[in-house]
Amino acid sequence: MTGAKARPDWAPYLVLPVVAVLALPAMAFPTWLTLTVAGAAMGMMLFLMASGLTLIFGLMDVLNFAHGAFITLGAYVAVSVLGRLAGLGAADSVMLNLIALAAAVLVAACVSGAVGWAFERVIIRRVYGSHLQQILITVGGLIVAQQLVIVLWGPQPLQIPKPAALRGSFIAGGAAIEAYRMVAVALGLLIFLAMHLVLNRTRIGLLVRAGVENREMVEALGYRIRRLFVGVFVAGTALAGIGGVMWGVYQEIVTPAIGDEMTILIFIVIIIGGLGSVTGCFASAILVGLTANYVGYLSPKLALGCNIALMVAVLLWRPRGLFPVAKQ
Amino acid sequence: MRWRIVSGDRPGHPVATALLLVLLVALAFAPFLFPGTRSVAAAARICIFIVLAASYDILLGYTGIVSFAHTMFFAIGAYGVAIPLANGWIGWDAVLAGGLGGAALAAGIAAAIGLLSLRVRKIFFSMITLAVASLAQLLATQWRDITGGEDGLTFSLPRILSPAFRLLSDPVLGVRIDGRLITYYLIFAVSLALFWLMLRIVNSPFGRVLQAIRENEFRAEALGYRTIVYRTLASALSAGMAAIAGALMALLLRYNGPEATMSFAIMVDVLLMVVIGGMGTLYGPALGAAVIVLAQYYLQPGLQALSDAAGALPLLPALFHPDRWLLWLGVLFILIVYFLPAGIVGSLRRRSRA
């Protein structure tokens, strides 16, 4: 930290509104509203999946290439849970529908978290400190996890029954807005707020933030950061599982590659946001979601490369991401 | 003195030397020692994967950075040859222009990725190569007019390389001297030359700087080496080599498509080859390539047998299903990273030094 009056850095906060406003003249207002909500919903789901990864990296300098496997796992658990609860999901009651979805989210979070705990013990614990070995071993873990999912659920794509009340859309401001997207936005905001509170208002959050800034110092003060890290790892994989449920239900179809497809987007998100920064992860997830939706509408052919172009642009402007973490 | 031709870089252990000599002799006389289309194709695959794995080792072992775009460069070289030939420009000039053009394009893309990402953090490079590789895969499947989409491109080769061509009317040592054989020896000669070139490069002053950066980036920088420039050059070099290997693959298959040269499974194979053989030894990946290619030819039938043997037991037949071979390669990969991190050649070297 330099001086007491470091100038606040406003530029990264302006990126989101600028992108949203720039897109407005290019299309009619109702379309813009639909796309913005869709982009925000996609961004929230991306945030769920990416936030764990960025914290894990920030805290322990571990980049988990197998993070996508937990997304896949979450999505497949949702298939099983919603399949069992088909009665609740198809019922003519918003409450029961939401309960079915909540059950899927909870079970997926528990399963992903438990598998994440085992993964940390078996795979990650032995390779702290060496990036090269971490990348290699987590890629190995990714392959094994993905193949085990295929062994358990089969290689063919599976349908997820979307709860009945969340299928339709409603009209607001002349624009059709899918109900499910609003649920995704609400859940994403809820989790972002919860994370914000835990990180900024609790002692554990204080330690996590301190660990991200300077691990050795926290250890020197007598805290067992390893134990803290296990907690963050489990929470991060549980969040990835929740993200997998939300994304799988959104797509209404799950394939074994669902996690891999998202991993690439997630990497882009955490690079743009600044590795280790939760706020950055939130902002960049929504940025990626918005850009993908706007560009996908304006010029579907360019949609393929627009995320990478966005990342390149951000890196040229700010090589350490929009919200760089103070260390190094 | 005898080792001067490879810059004095010895395999480092009598066993490793012996294995490499056996490999060299076996590949040099493969069509005569193991006649048959299938085994000659396997030998040609080994040659190509030796180049691919060795070029990846320049990056992984000698420079200490992980790229996931290596199969993209492999595919660029393969498409470089496939696209002109499939569009009716059949000739040596097309093969040469396609192969070298592909190599130049691959090196250019690698340099751009390197300059953008290595400037910041090594780990960005891995993530960005993954993103770019997935984009390339999408492009290759979507851009139907040029790449043939999922179906890929089938083409015929210049006359001398086509299977119907006979150089001599009589067989030599019971083997027909036809286009297939000439293709094999073309692949063998180019692979050998490239492998030798890479040995010279990693043992040159340039290669030493790469190793210095891998060992201690900060110190190398303090000594006045511009680490980004060196790493980017290594990345471009490795990409160019991979593209030439891809061109050879296209010649071998007379076909190219996303599955043949670009799939993530090939990336895993290459990682395994380098890690099993020993990162940063160049000889190791050559052995690793031979091991993995041979294993692939025999692993799937073996799994089928296990799956049948497991019979009616729950879950086991699914675990040993021949399509699940990637599962077992993944397990093997994890075990090797844990228990044999130096790989075959690296462990042997350590033993002979002790």
From TrEMBL, chain A:
One record GO biological process: amino acid transport
Membrane topology: Multi-pass membrane protein
Any one GO molecular function term: transmembrane transporter activity
Keyword Nucleus attached: no
InterPro entries referenced in this protein's UniProt entry, alphabetically: ABC_transp_permease (IPR001851), BCAA_transport_permease (IPR052157)
One protein family per Pfam: BPD_transp_2
Principal location listed in the UniProt entry: membrane
TM ranges: 38-58, 65-86, 98-119, 131-153, 179-199, 228-250, 262-290, 302-319
Subcellular localization(s) per the UniProt record: Cell membrane
Superkingdom of the source species: Bacteria
Assigned keywords, A-Z: Amino-acid transport, Cell membrane, Membrane, Transmembrane, Transmembrane helix, Transport
GO cellular component: plasma membrane
Entry's family note: Belongs to the binding-protein-dependent transport system permease family. LivHM subfamily.
PANTHER family found in the cross-reference section: ABC TRANSPORTER ATP-BINDING PROTEIN, BRANCHED-CHAIN AMINO ACID TRANSPORT SYSTEM PERMEASE PROTEIN LIVH
UniProt name for this protein: Branched-chain amino acid ABC transporter permease
Automatic annotation (TrEMBL), chain B:
Listed GO MF terms: branched-chain amino acid transmembrane transporter activity
Transmembrane segments: 12-34, 40-60, 72-90, 96-116, 181-199, 228-253, 265-298, 325-348
Keyword line: Cell membrane, Membrane, Transmembrane, Transmembrane helix
Membrane topology, as annotated: Multi-pass membrane protein
Gene Ontology cellular component terms for the protein in this record: plasma membrane
Keyword Membrane in annotation: yes
Compartmental location: Cell membrane
This protein's record includes keyword Transmembrane: yes
Protein name according to UniProt: Branched-chain amino acid ABC transporter permease
Native source species: Limobrevibacterium gyesilva
